[in-house]
Write a structure and sequence with these properties.
Layout (H helix, E strand, L loop, with lengths): L1 H24 L5 H32 L5 H15 L8 H15 L2
């Protein structure tokens, strides 16, 4: 579950970054507003990509003997933080919470 959560958050971050890039490319009128809007999407997308990578790292740690607790905490923490960037279409957020709790229970 944690792996799927990380992948969904990562995909959403990449999509947001690409949407921001498209907004920047397609600006002819209202130059400043669109540039700033595009940059904001790219920044949020980059943060989501970082959260997705960290969720994936935590998910991998859950499957290594002795690292279940650390992996579960990482997955849980960054899944909760990912809600600020969209949470992997909310499905990634929910799967991350469930996967993190299961990782903590696995110890």
């Amino acid at each position: 579950m944690s792996l799927i959560a990380g992948i969904l958050v990562l995909i959403q971050g990449i999509v947001r970054m690409l949407r921001g890039e498209l907004v920047i490319i397609g600006v002819l009128d209202e130059f400043r507003r669109r540039i700033l809007g595009g940059l904001a999407l790219e920044v949020v997308g980059a943060i989501a990509v970082v959260f997705g990578i960290l969720i994936l790292v935590g998910a991998i740690l859950i499957y290594k003997p002795g690292n279940e607790t650390a992996g579960g905490i990482i997955v849980l923490l960054f899944s909760v933080l990912s809600i600020l960037t969209g949470g992997g279409y909310l499905v990634g957020f929910l799967l991350g919470i469930i996967g993190g709790v299961l990782g903590l229970a696995k110890k």
